[in-house]
Amino acid sequence: MKSYNNIYLIDDFETVNFLHTMLLKRLGFQSVFSFTNPEEGLKVLLENRNSLKSSLILLDINMPEMNGFEFLDCLLKEGITQSLDVIIVSSSISEKDKRLALEYPEYVRHFLNKPLESNQLKTLLELNENSKLI
């Protein structure tokens, strides 16, 4: 299973973050940080930019303050491109959203519907880190 130092959950629904946190902890991940406000999550990432190597972000797309693509744009603008993987976790089934996700090849590894299931996430994390399912 791919080892991540930190996992960041960015989703405006606290319940989804709670469920995903519990799922990740059952899979053995201890450093899981969740944010219901993407701007707060972005602030923490920027403050810790030097320690983001081998980090994973589970990112929702449709959020009121800042959508997931705006979040990714901010990461690019700030020059955060080191070893940071993003899995888009969304209720969106829009092909347009999937196409937009492809515009961020430096980050986005997968595009999944939420909520995640334990086996689904475990399988993803066992895949080669360079593989993409979008």
From TrEMBL:
Gene3D superfamilies xref list: 3.40.50.2300
A GO biological process held by the record: phosphorelay signal transduction system
A Pfam family assignment: Response_reg
Protein name as it appears in the record: Uncharacterized protein
Origin species: Maribacter cobaltidurans
Lineage start: Bacteria, Pseudomonadati, Bacteroidota, Flavobacteriia, Flavobacteriales
